[in-house]
Amino acid sequence: xxxxxxxxxxxxxxxxxxxxxxxxxxxxxxxxWELSRNKLALGGAVIVAxxxxxxxxxxxxxxxxxxxxxLSDVLLxxxxxxxxxGTDELGRDVLSRLLLGIRISMAVGLGTTAIALVIGTVAGxxxxxxxxxxxxxxxxxxxxxxxxxxxxxxxxxxxxxxxGLTGVIIxxxxxxxxxxxxxxxxxxxxLREKEFVAAARALGKGDLEIMVRHLLPNxxxxxxxxxxxxIAIAIIAEAGLSFIGMGAQPPxxxxxxxxxxxxxxxxxxxxxxxxxxxxxxxxVLGLNVLGDGLRDVLDPRLKGQG
Amino acid sequence: MAxxxxxxxxxxxxxxxxxxxxIFYALRSAPGGPSGGGVLSPLxxxxxxxxxxxxxxxxxxxxxxxxxxxxxxxxxxxxTSLVNGTPxxxxxxxxxxxxxVLGLTALAISYLIAIPLGVLAAVKRNTWVDQLAMGGAIxxxxxxxxxxxxxxxxxxSLRLGLLPSAGCCDPPQLLMPxxxxxxxxxxxxxxxxxxxxxxxxxxxxxxxxxxKGLPEWRVIxxxxxxxxLIPVISLTGLRLGWLVGYALIVETxxxxxxxxxxxxxxxxxxxxxxAQFFSLLLIFFVLMANWFADxxxxxxxxxxxxx
Lengths: 306, 307
Hints:
The structure holds two protein chains of two kinds.
Chain A: H1 2-22, H2 27-37, H3 39-61, H4 94-130, H5 132-145, H6 150-161, H7 165-191, H8 195-202, H9 207-243, H10 255-263, H11 271-298
Chain B: H1 2-29, H2 46-56, H3 62-74, H4 88-123, H5 128-142, H6 145-159, H7 171-201, H8 204-211, H9 216-234, H10 236-254, H11 259-269, H12 272-300
Helix pairs in contact in B: 1-12, 4-5, 4-7, 5-7, 6-7, 7-9, 7-10, 9-12, 10-11, 10-12, 11-12
């Protein structure tokens, strides 16, 4: 009889473990819960979500055409003549231009970072996993690009292909993939010595499966944290280059270019550059704070640092 | 260490050589060119353009131009600006000096503000001092430097009339560009000093020193800070490289006649000799800075010294 009880207990216990395992909070739900308790990070997430929505839907809701010039209505202050944020020196509606400018900034930031993240993660993973000559070649490229000022490369590249957003996007992607590759390579270097990788290999899993199913989930957190900082870096770089005339070309409104156009009217019509300036600062602050929060949540070892 | 230095130096020379070819081709592949609106008037006739290109040797294949350029360089002839005929040696003397003055001032400002505040924030952790300093740092990292420049110009030049909005090279004209150039670095350095201090404040030797009865300020300044500054100092090289990038924008905004302003201007105007020389100069500077960063890192932390 005693045996039966033990067997019952055992199966009951196993069932319980099974149930707990089945209902465990997923890694991401866990992370989300942590994130929702971190007020600063939540604030950042709200700001970023807001601007993402604005970037997607904003231009559709714009009250005027962004390039439409009404020369009888130039330099209207905010809240006059049906223009919430006023008009610029050519009588174009600032709000409509701002909405499109946010879309351009977000698209450049997200687009370049997504490309850099994918290329950097793949390169870092291969270098860290295979080591040897693969690592030497890939890391050679990383070292080449890393430490080069983004703006300098962008200026040279734009010198070659002419001013415009294409040059900005290529330059930012070209520099930033190295950052992802460095981080991922370092982590994979350490991870591939861990027991779970040895176990997977002992079970006869191939390199690709080990990299994708076992290593990738362990490095994606750090890559995402880097990602949110890099989106901010890309947005600032685009704005800076547009500001000195090397990025978005008129009449396309980029936030940096709007600040530049407004800079000639600082004394009497400062809102022309103040409004896009505040938007950039909010956007970048939101991304940086979100990055700090994600780092605390996804990489608790670094909590409280930096 | 010696072989590492040699390899590193060889690598640097290789990158410089590759960069020089890439830059040479890149500039010439750009639409326009000096005869197409960059230097000559866009309205000038076809004959004038051809004569102009012939005189400068721009009608020859790019690789021939490259070797001619190299042979001139070897003889110490850096060429002259296509825009105003100024010899590049002359431009180098004035603009490099201006950039160095601006960059070093910015670096000094950034360390003088960031290190004391970082230490204070770490010592007074989680108090209002800490929160204020870190809030300032987050803001400093979030404000694009060109907008900060506009705000400073708005208040100090347009409203208060205290500082000139652009120009060179008196201390009042230096102040705003240097502050703007220092802003981001200050924020990053402050955060780094704080986290490095916090890390070392937990070390055992700190407890031992306190138990020994050493005054707290000596524990902090003589012992903890000395250890905490290692990563901060060793990042100076990397910092210099970043400063070069920001200087392109800050010098352009403030019309500060430095290398950055000259480069942006010459790239936009297709002034080939100026653009190619100064872009190579900046790349050389960045490589040197990174080289020092590597060496500095190795010296500061023998455990990670690359063999």
